[in-house]
Amino acid sequence: MKPYRLLETSKKYTEYDMIQKHTEVAPFPDVRARLLFLFLSQAGDSRLQENREELFPLVTGLVQMALDTHDRIDTSSAYQREEQMRSRQLNVLAGDYFSSRFYELLAKAGEIGMVARLSEAICENNRLKMDLYVQSNESDVTAAHYMEASIQLKMQLFLSFTSYIDPSAHQLWEQMLYWFSRCEWLATELKAGSNVQPFGEYGLYYVLGQSAPADHSRLKMEASSEDVARYRGEWEARYGIQAHLEQLLQHSLVAINERLQQENHTELAAAVSELTSSYAALVHQV
């Protein structure tokens, strides 16, 4: 299998008529899955001879979809129309469904050890989410902390496979996973604007960090008001949130290129350039 086919392969496990009709699930983490494929395929490990380099990125992507889809569940107690209720229920079921496919694929392949390893990673992922949730409700979370915590959540499952990667490439793998997870998170924020997340929103944290403490209560009220779209427009005009995110994304792309040039990673650098192209295009478009 070629790395670019992972997304296509995942569709036969994720596309379900009822889900597609009534709700929108989280996307397959194609870039992180392809990055894992690239490093596993270069490992030269005898344990990867039975298509593990294809299976592991696929099942990890399915688990990530399950977790991200559950994060989209609206936990508001406010009244919801039947269509909204159905969408919420299907987000719960869709996340469970994607998880079941992960168990099924690994069990059929006899990879019981990897079921345990990924299950541990899921537990750690949920622990990190709880920590971030508590911090965001009990204290003022900075934009930088929120971003870094979000990146760690994207990395957690994929770090489970470090032992299958050539030891000489462990550091490079973890660095590339960090920078690509950062790129993915920033690209999502750029495309969505001030996108509401389970733990708050980056735009608000950034604005709070750029404003006087006396204004914080007012800004938080604006973030939760019914006229939030107008306030977000005002924040953008005053604080340049999008330009700030674009600058962070550009810095991430530079870090990836500089790291690959430090050593002789010609083949990997060529493959990675395909993964960065969509992010580079996004920077130029903004």
List keywords for this structure.
mainly alpha, HEPPP_synth_su1, 13 helices, Heptaprenyl diphosphate synthase component 1, single chain, 286 residues
Structure description:
This protein is mainly α and 286 residues long. The chain contains 13 helices and no strands. The relative contact order is 0.10.
Summarize, please.
The chain is mostly helical. The chain is built from 13 helices and no strands.
* Helix/strand order, N-terminal first: HHHHHHHHHHHHH
Please mark out the parts with pLDDT under 50 across 5 or more consecutive residues, or reply none.
194-199
User: Based on helices, strands and strand pairing, what is the structural class?
Assistant: mainly alpha
Number of helices: 13
Shape: globular
Percentage of residues in strands: under 5%
Could you give a short account of the major beta sheet?
none
How many β-strands, per DSSP? 0
The whole-number mean of residue pLDDT values reads 81
- Roughly how many Å apart are the termini? 34 Å
Q: Helix fraction?
A: over 70%
Q: How big is the Rg?
A: 20 Å
Protein name: Heptaprenyl diphosphate synthase component 1
InterPro entries: HEPPP_synth_su1 (IPR009920)
